[in-house]
Amino acid sequence: MDIAEKLMLEISARRDDLVTLTQDLIRIPTLNPPGENYREICDFLDRRLVRSGFHTELIRAEGTPGDSDRYPRWNLVARRDGAGPGDCVHFNSHIDVVEVGRGWTTDPFGGEVRDGKIHGRGACDMKGGLAASIIAAEAFIAVCPGFHGAIEISGTADEESGGFGGVAYLAEQGFFSPERVQHVIIPEPLNKDRICLGHRGVWWAEIETHGEIAHGSMPFLGDCAVRHMGAVMTEMEASLFPLLASKRTTMPVVPDGAKQSTLNINSIHGGEAEQEADYTGLPSPCVPDSCRMVIDRRFLIEEDIDEVQEEVFNVLETVAARRENFHYDVREIQRVLPTMTEKSAPVVQSVAKAIGAVMGKDPQYVVSPGTYDQKHIDRIGKLKNCIAYGPGILDLAHKPDEYVGIDDMVESAQVMGRSLLDLLDQV
Ligand SMILES: [Zn+2]
C-alpha cells in the first residue's frame, strides 16, 4: 500500500474522533458579539494539540476592537516542526460563531448527530472545518513521522466581526510572514469540492444628510433631513443601482448574483431615537435634523476603490445641484480591497490535485461574495499563497439548524491530508 492510501485509511479510521471533536467545539458557545468563551475554546484546542506534539502559543489581541477583561480576544497558534527544514502549511480557522437567531429544531450548542450530520451553531461555519484540519494533521503526522517542514493550526477570534482581534492582529505580529508560513488553507465552508481563491472588495460608509429641527406641526419652519435622504435614495435607484448592475466581473464569484457590483443599504436612522420596547410614551413632534444611512458596497477586482467612492459622491452631488439646502457628510467605516490568488499558486495546485484523487473530479474554483480572513493574510501578512477550502455547505452558514455532513468532513480531511503529503517533503 502506498503512503497516500495509508493516509486515507488513517483519516477514515479517525471518523469517530472527528465527530466527537466537532461536537466538543460546538458545545463551547463562542458567540460573537460579544466574544464569549474564547479562552475556553483556546484552552481546549491547546490541550488537544499539545497532546499531538504541537508547540502552542496563546495570544491575546489586547486593545483590539471588543477586547476587554470581560471579553478578552484570545487566539491559539500551534506549530509542529518536522524532522528537517521545509515549507510550513498553516490551517487557519476562526473560533467565533454568530448569534443563534430563531427557528432552530435542535439545541444550537448541543452538537446533536442526526442522519449523518452534526447540528449546531458553527457546525459548518466553521468548527467542522477546524476539526477536519486537526484530524488531517494528526493523521499525517502518524503516517509520516519523518516529514520535513512544519504544520501550523490556528484558532482565531472575531472573523465574523472583521478579524481585527484575530488574524489581523496575528499578521501584524508576524505570524503570517512569508518567512514563517508558505501555504495557508482556511477551512471555511465553501463545499468540499470547491477551492475559494479570494473575495470581492468592501467599502462601508455612512452618509448623513442634515436639516433643521422645528415643531412637527410647522415643518416649513425647519428642514427635514429624512426627505433629503429620500432624494438620495431616489437618485440611487435612478442612476447608481443600474450602473452597478451593468458591471460584471471575470472573478468566478458565487452565487451568480454576486458576479456584479452590489450595494446594500444596511440601515437608515432619522429623527428621534427609537425607545426601549417597554416604553409606553408617545413620540414628540419634531422635524428631523439628521438622517444617517449605512451603505455596504461590494466591488470587483476590475474596479478601483476611488472610482467606487466617486460613484457615491456623484449621486450626492447630483442631488445637491437640484435641491435647496442639501448638505451631507460621508464617513468611511471600513475598506477591504478585493483579493484573488492565482490558480497557478502551489497551494491551489496541491488542493486541486488532492480533490481529484479523493473525489475523482476537478475542483470548481470560486470567489466569495463576502470577505473573510484572507484579506489580512494578503494585505498585512503579504502572503498570496492562500485559499479557503473546507467542508460544509456555504448556504447553511449563519442559518437556523446549521449542520455539517460527517462524510463531507472525512473527505475534506482527506483532501487536506493529501495536500500535506504533496506540500511537505517526506524522507
Ligand atoms: Zn466563517
Automatic annotation (TrEMBL):
The residues covered by the Peptidase M20 dimerisation domain are 198-322
PANTHER family assigned:
ACETYLORNITHINE DEACETYLASE, ARGE_DAPE-RELATED DEACYLASE
State the name under which the record lists this protein: Acetylornithine deacetylase/succinyl-diaminopimelate desuccinylase family protein
Give the organism, scientific name: Marimonas arenosa
Give the UniProt family note: Belongs to the peptidase M20A family.
Keyword set includes Zinc: yes
The cofactor(s) it depends on are: Zn(2+); Co(2+)
Output the InterPro entries linked to this UniProt entry: ArgE/DapE, Bact_exopeptidase_dim_dom, Peptidase_M20, Peptidase_M20_dimer, Peptidase_M20A
Listed GO MF terms = hydrolase activity; metal ion binding
Identify the NCBIfam families for this entry: DapE-ArgE, PRK13013.1
